[in-house]
């Protein structure tokens, strides 16, 4: 395993202009990804996880959204300082991205072969014949049977899972060092989801890529991530190795999120009640000073002023960072 | 007609009884091209829902679960089979009698924002079913809308606002309030929480349970998420390819699944446990290698 990170995001700040003011969508996010490792970024709608990914990719919707602070170091270069042209060279070749809905990412009027070959010819300078032969290999690699024939099919002739495989084939076509996957299985059935995650896992190993997987689903994180980043209201609230995070969640939000998930074991089934998190996340136009989760937190409202106080991400145990005055272990008295 | 074995014990008539329902799309004979093959979206489904009970209908996309719901709602006409509701055969109802059915059977859809007219106020959205059915006067309907808002946990200040001002979870509460306006006995819930975040999803599921306890509602709860379905259902039916492949009490179906497809679905459903998920991956890899 390579310990030098291929991607290092430092104190990233991304602002989005809206009618209601400037939204601090990403507010001081730092994490790194090594080759051969998977970082899972998990959080609910509006927490800033997709904006983080789009910032890394240089794909923020302009001019409303822009990176206003921090560094995005990829292979030693700060992407925030590159020109659009330089960024375009890196994107698609060294960094690739796949999205939730493969139908809207693929051009419905072109065969999938044309779309795979486009990337190969653009970045690798292959001839038509070379690109076609390589595209056939790629479709085979992502598990599409009869690849040579399927190259001439249009996106609508593929199922949702197969379309996502086509997107993955395009993404890995130039052997990227980093793959960013934003909710890649959210639109898919569970049986298909498991196979797509298996594929991403295998390709990460075979191509020695760093993988950033963005999801709202704790189950997907548990499946594929090595390191996890939990986001809430534009900030990282907890960061740990995946086994550590699920065994000892320290932030009250992480714990509440896990508690709100219905389980296959039943939770008392029809007669039980789910532990919902009351309220909603705060507005990021004017986020609360101090702890952003305090208004919904079961452990806040203490006389110690935890809601207003300084609330930095701090290392509780080696590799386990948390942004709260009240880590769960401190409250339950469970030392780890 | 009676179908032995599907009615609840005690001989009471179930609230909803669907017998051998089929819904085929296409398949018409076209000149010069012969018969086209029909898509059997629903292919012989029988189910019952008792009063105050929740039947979870779970399956993957294309399993026919939503089409089954739409046939029961009479938003689609069944190709064959019968649907009995509150003791009446509703399979072929038309006109005013069909409208009468709407007072007793309501629906909540997946996308809460798309189900509301963006130009209407929330108060008008909730009161609209009362207007359509000529119930009460304007003042009475507004009072009823405020009562319904309170019932679903929204402040009465929401009355004058528009749907886009609300979050997904709040919009779904508005959908529920509107569905309750006509005091139905059955609500068909078609993926009502799939577009919501986990924390909000739990709020809405709890609300549906509370309303059921309070008002004696029955739900046909259609969803793809097995854990969500288990958390709300008394009984569960698993659909695949237009058929129910397994049905029974929730605990029985989940704890000792009999059908191979149910087992496969349960094995693929993600759980928040890295150790379990990694073991499953190794098992899948071993299965492929064999």
Describe the structure.
By secondary structure, chain A is α/β, with parallel strands linked by helices. Chain A is built from twelve helices and twelve strands. The mean pLDDT of chain A is 91. Chain B is of the alpha/beta class. Chain B has one domain (16-27, 37-289): P-loop containing nucleotide triphosphate hydrolases (Rossmann fold), CATH 3.40.50. Chain B has helices at 65-73, 95-104, 122-132, 138-151, 168-180, 198-215, 226-232, 250-255, 260-268, 274-289, and strands at 16-25, 29-30, 34-35, 39-49, 54-58, 80-85, 88-89, 105-108, 186-190, 218-223, 235-240, 243-249. In chain B, strands 8-9-10-5-11-12 form a six-stranded mixed β-sheet, sandwiched between helices. Chain B has a four-stranded antiparallel β-sheet with strand order 4-1-6-7, with helices on one face. In chain B, strands 2-3 form a two-stranded antiparallel sheet. In chain B, helix 5 packs parallel to helix 6 (198-215). The longest helix of chain B is centred in the C-terminal third of the chain and has 18 residues, at 198-215. In chain B, 42% of the residues are buried. At the A-B interface, helix 8, helix 9, helix 10 and helix 11 of A face helix 6, helix 7, helix 8, helix 9 and helix 10 of B.
